[in-house]
Amino acid sequence: MATETKLTIPSNAETTEPSADGTNFSNRAQWLRAAVLRANDGLVSTASLMMGIGAAKDDAKAMVISGFAGMVAGACSMAIGEFVSVYSQLDIEMAQLKREQRLPQEGLPNPVRAAMASAAAFSVGAAVPLLAAGFIKSHRVRMAVVAAAATLALAMFGWMGAALGRASVVRGG
C-alpha cells in the first residue's frame, strides 16, 4: 500500500509578511521576476540576432541596424503580450469582485503600466549588445565584445535581481 505525500503550501498571509524594515519581498518578487526576465530576453535575443548577422556579414552597420530592429520588435512584442496577459488578469479579478459584490480596492493590476515596464526592461537588456557593437570597427573584436558583454550582463541582471530581492547574489549572478 503506497503512502501519499501531501505538499503543504503556507497561506498567503504567511508568505507575504514584511521584513523588519517593512519591505514585503514576496510582493516585490512578482515585478522583479518579470523585469529580470524581460531584460534577459532583450539581451539574449538581440545579442543572438546581432551575432547571427555578424557571422553572415562583416558590416557593423548591418549588425547594429538588425539589433535595433530586434529591440523595437521585441519591446513591442513584450508590451503587447504583457498588456493582454495583465488585462486578462484584471478582467478575472473584476469579475470576482462583482460576484462577491465588493468594490475594487487599491492594488488591481494595471495593464498599461505592465506593458510599459515590459517594453522598458526588454529595451534595457537589448541596449547592452547594441552599445557593445556600436563603437567597434574590427569584425572579430566586435563579435567577441558582444558575446562578452551579453555574458557579463546576464550575470549582472541575475545579481541585481537577487540583491533587490534580498536573496543570494552569488547564486543569482
From TrEMBL:
Membrane topology: Multi-pass membrane protein
Entry keywords, A to Z: Ion transport, Iron, Iron transport, Membrane, Transmembrane, Transmembrane helix, Transport, Vacuole
Annotated GO MF terms: iron ion sequestering activity; iron ion transmembrane transporter activity; manganese ion transmembrane transporter activity
Lineage: Eukaryota, Viridiplantae, Streptophyta, Embryophyta, Tracheophyta
Subcellular location: Vacuole membrane
Region described as Disordered: 1-24
A biological process from GO: intracellular manganese ion homeostasis
Family, as annotated: Belongs to the CCC1 family.
Protein name per its UniProtKB record: Vacuolar iron transporter
Domain of life: Eukaryota
Any single Gene Ontology cellular-component annotation: vacuolar membrane
Entry keyword annotation includes Transport: yes
A family per Pfam: VIT1
Function comment: Vacuolar Fe(2+) uptake transporter.
Record's catalysed reaction(s): Fe(2+)(in) = Fe(2+)(out)
Primary location group: membrane
Membrane-spanning segments: 60-80, 114-136, 143-164
